[in-house]
Design brief:
By secondary structure, the protein is α+β, with helices and mostly antiparallel strands. The chain has two helices and five strands; from the N terminus they run αβββαββ. The chain has helices at about 5-10, 60-75; strands spanning about 20, 25-30, 35-45, 80-85, 100-105. Strands 1-2-3-5-4 form a five-stranded antiparallel beta sheet, covered by helices on one side. The longest helix has 16 residues, at about 60-75. The structure holds guanosine-5'-monophosphate (5GP) and zinc ion. Zinc ion (ZN) binds near residues 1, 4, 6, 7 and 46. Zinc ion binds near residues 1, 7 and 97.
């Protein structure tokens, strides 16, 4: 997608601090971290949000969760972490490319 911030990050047109990459997904540290460990995992396929997940493309979501579990062990935060995706403006979504926040490194509070 031409004007999508995260597509530009995936393409390397906008710099980011990369955590992980494979053929299906890209992970990079959030520019405005809400926890000591806070990175985003995005599918390389542009989907505007989790509302665009269908039976045809859902496999990438399972893949992303497997990648997160692997990174949790490798980056040593497997003792506790949160995976969040905001879907739509009412939920606080600001970037319209499906992304999973991975947060760890402190006691996380409750949320709405
Ligand atoms: P959302 O609010 O859509 O769930 O999450 C978007 C996230 O993207 C926010 O946590 C925000 O800090 C992060 N973000 C926005 N622009 C950039 C950027 O240019 N680079 C990086 N690394 N993160 C960004
Ligand atoms: Zn995109």
């Amino acid at each position: 997608m031409n004007d999508c911030l995260f597509c530009k990050i995936i393409a390397g047109d906008i710099p980011s601090k990369k955590v992980y990459e494979d053929e299906l997904c890209f992970a990079f540290y959030d520019i405005s971290p809400m926890a000591p460990m806070h990175f985003l995992v995005v599918p390389k396929l542009h989907l505007a949000s989790c509302a665009e997940i269908t039976a045809d493309n859902a496999a990438v979501v399972g893949h992303i969760f497997a990648v997160i579990a692997k990174l949790a062990k490798e980056l040593d935060f497997a003792d506790g972490y949160r995976v969040v995706t905001n879907c739509g403006e009412l939920a606080g979504q600001t970037v319209k490319h499906l992304h999973f926040h991975v947060l760890s490194g402190k006691q996380l509070g409750s949320f709405d």
